[in-house]
Design brief:
Layout: E1 2-7, E2 18-24, E3 32-37, H1 45-62, E4 69-73, H2 78-81, E5 84-85, E6 88-89, H3 108-117, H4 124-141, H5 147-159, E7 164-171, E8 173-174, E9 177-181, H6 185-195, E10 199-203, H7 211-225, E11 236-244, H8 250-267, E12 285-286, E13 290-294, E14 299-303, E15 309-311, E16 316-321, E17 328-332, E18 337-342, E19 347-348, E20 353-359
Helix pairs in contact: 1-8, 3-4, 3-7, 6-8
Length: 371
């Protein structure tokens, strides 16, 4: 293993920060996978998983069992890591700009479209190499103006040449679930099998330009722009939501690290016996098919159905109780689907999103991700 330090632009005086990447296995041979955790810095399960994955990768590297490069960034967001307000870490938004750390990534297709237009040919592998080289060159040429811009550029530069990109997050209170591109549902199904995901949510456009989407939309967009040239979906990228914010334990993290290693073995990045792909808990469903129920008024939240359960129309998911007036409002599922996530707080303001059920039919349009 070798370690790299990537300095960020200093936003103020006396407070420089850096991203640290860990590199395992042979470079420029075979495939490459990039995994990061903590882009939302108050989401901690993935950080512990990559800690345990690092130990296992060191063992495999020493045994000569890695056939390609594995890049880990266990702390993807040193800016958000220090965002403590009155003792509580707020790592989802950059406090200065108020921007979500997992939104507003560059449109890579737009970045290289003109540059590659005259160089694309009839060889798909050569086209992929060309596009990746141009992306890397253009990212390196951009001069960031802010610390947040330099963070985004640093992470994109580390991931842009990877065949697989896994951005590890967690939800508020949830089962494991994935976000994938609609053209990569079959690959998402494999990852879901190894990770035990209870929902695999697919979309051609999630909205918000999140990190994982940047590395799939580039190929889909260039396919549309240059239909006369063979351009595959060369990068499989996914957001992996590792349960909820309180699901941080060595037992879970070790199991998740082993699941990711089995996935790497399936991809051919680790030699040796590969566990068969487990049957996924659920088949991929459209991200637009997620039914989100909001609190009709403020009050105490009492959930009535467990996450990880299949619900039918009319299933009671939660009660919102106003202890002053005695008003009780019951949220019931309007669809059949997997109740995969809910808000962990047990007191809510009016109109807060509380429950999330993954259904089979589209329900929503526009931006499909929350703030």
């Amino acid at each position: 293993m070798y370690q790299q330090q990537h300095a960020l632009v200093a936003q103020s005086l006396g407070a420089p920060r850096e991203v640290i990447s860990l590199h395992f296995g042979p470079q420029d041979q075979g495939q490459k996978i990039y995994l990061q955790a903590g882009l939302h810095a108050d989401e901690h399960p993935g950080m512990l998983v990559l800690h345990h994955l690092k130990s296992r990768l060191l063992e495999l590297e020493a045994a000569g069992r890695l056939t390609g490069e594995v890049v880990l960034v266990p702390i993807a967001n040193p800016i958000g890591l220090g965002n403590y307000v009155f003792g509580r870490q707020l790592g989802r938004f950059e406090l200065s700009s108020r921007e979500n750390f997992n939104r507003h990534y560059l449109d890579l297709a737009e970045l290289v479209r003109e540059q590659v237009a005259s160089q694309l040919g009839s060889n798909a592998a050569a086209n992929v190499a060309l596009i990746r080289r141009c992306i890397g060159e253009r990212l390196q040429a951009i001069e960031p103006r802010t610390e947040l811009e330099s963070l985004r550029l640093t992470l994109m530069a580390l991931a842009c040449a990877a065949d697989y990109v896994l951005d590890v997050h967690c939800d508020s209170d949830a089962m494991v679930h994935l976000y994938v591109h609609s053209k990569q549902q079959a690959q998402g199904r494999v990852l879901a099998g190894y990770t035990g995901a209870h929902a695999t949510l697919h979309a051609t456009e999630q909205g918000g330009n999140s990190f994982d989407e940047a590395f799939t939309s580039v190929w889909a967009t260039l396919q549309q722009a240059f239909p006369q040239h063979p351009i595959p979906m060369a990068t499989f990228a996914a957001t992996v939501e590792l349960r909820g914010i309180n699901d941080v334990s060595h037992e879970l993290a070790r199991a998740d690290a082993e699941a990711l290693l089995a996935y790497l073995g399936h991809l051919g990045l680790v030699t040796g016996e590969v566990p068969a792909v487990p049957a996924p808990v659920c088949e991929p469903t459209p991200l637009s098919g997620v039914e989100v129920l909001n609190a009709p008024h403020a009050g105490v939240v009492a959930y009535r159905a467990p996450i990880g359960s299949w619900v039918e129309p009319g299933t009671a998911l939660a009660d919102v109780i106003d202890p002053l007036s005695g008003r009780v409002s019951t949220l019931t599922s309007g669809i059949a689907g997997m109740f995969y996530a809910r808000l962990i707080e047990r007191f809510t303001e009016a109109n807060t999103e509380l429950t999330f059920v993954a259904g089979r039919e589209p329900l929503r349009q526009g931006c499909l991700l929350g703030a």
